[in-house]
Amino acid sequence: MRKNSLYNLLLVGVLCCACNSYLNEIPQNKLKPTTIDDYEQLLNRGYISKQIMPYLDVLSDDATLVPEFSATLSNTRAADIYASAYTWSSSHETSMPDGDKAFEAFYSSAYYANVVLENIDEATGINTDEEKTKELQGNLKGEAYVLRAYSYFNLVNLYAPAYNPSTCATDPGIPINLTTDVDRKPYLRSTVEKVYVLIEEDLKEGIRLMEENPYDRGTKLRFNALSARALLARVYLYMQKWDLAIEQANLVLKENSSLFDLNVAYLQNPSINASDVLSAYYMSDQMAGKDYLAVDNSNVLFVSGITENIMAFAARSYMTAFAVNEDLHNLYEDGDIRQNYFIRQVREFGDDGMVYKYIFAKNRYIDYPIGNFTFEINGSTGYSRVIRTEEMYLILAEAYAHKSGGLGNAIAALNTLRQAKYIAEDYNELREEDYTQNTILDRVWLERRLELCFEGHRWFDLRRTTRPVMERRGYGTQQASLIENDPRYVLQIPQKELNVNPEIGINPR
Which of 95, 374, 393, 426 is deepest in the core (most CB within 10 A)? Predict the structure, then answer.
């Protein structure tokens, strides 16, 4: 790509403004790093702390719009901003005043990783312990590989077709940039296959380096060897490499098999499983879902940035006309605590009487402002880009479901997960005799939808599995639909990038 305004400095004495494209960002106003600590701080800046994909769940069938709420709301901005995503417009960013930020953010993150990878071997330690210096260099280098893989994994799943073993060698992917060179060459797309090869190789090398050079940073806001392995399990699932996905998920669970036990939460506060509207519920210390994705939970392996769901799916009914799809709420079985732990019903007086809708509660509102209707988006509002052990059980279930003779193992993985999410006396195990190799996949995908809702998985799952027909209504008489295998399951390249880099090409519509 030709350089535009994003990647702005050179590693020559002073890192100064020099480039013009998302693929070449370097942090500004930073003297050339020399020590391991310098690169530690530099890589830390590569982790994305802001909202960059707030439209992701809006795209999925877990979202709906309640136009009747518009007349009662003091702020419909979120619904208006993401209307183009909700209606699957040719470009999802059309109604977004600042455009799509994910493309820029993930390439920026990858560039920070590139800076570390190119220079960390020459970095000096903080003391004369050469062995310790080598360990820190190796660990940080491994982390940089993993962060780069994470960036490219998200990019290829947003802006390129889903991985298909039979077509990935020719399907257009995304550009790859593995250097910090400042030049004027265009960056053309690599194939989906080549992007996934890079992701896989980066993750394997990153895991190797971090395991050989262990260092505990004491935070889940950055990758370690375990969370990197969990990401690799996810990547193999997307690549349909079932045996490798099983292997990696099992390695993760061998080290950490914790689950968030909702039975404990239910026994402490049975009202969390009540479906009625509770007027003071959202101000309560017992608010459902507030700690489900908390960084200090033992089952949580990695978190990245604040929740993507505020403001589109707010905890306050007046903030937006978007809602959780009632169909999702109704898919939960009797006794499944997740139904009302993740989703709550709210009501407002409209022009024609009381209007109801569902909102998501699956997050951790630690500092919810009691009596204050100003909602601040910060770390206390929770996370939605999360890697946790529940996903590993679901990866096992799906991978085994694709394997001949894997039915029993698939059901066993689902039962292990489900038992921790139901009221004990209402729980019934899934039975192998009730499923076939053809029907178990539907159950696995259902369980993924129920457990991972509003964590950014659903749209990616729809893309990589069935890409089904979907229909919805917008404001007034506006109707929107996707046909099966619709090309709009691939998001359009942001216009800012197309303006400076037409060689990248638009995605088909």
Answer: 393
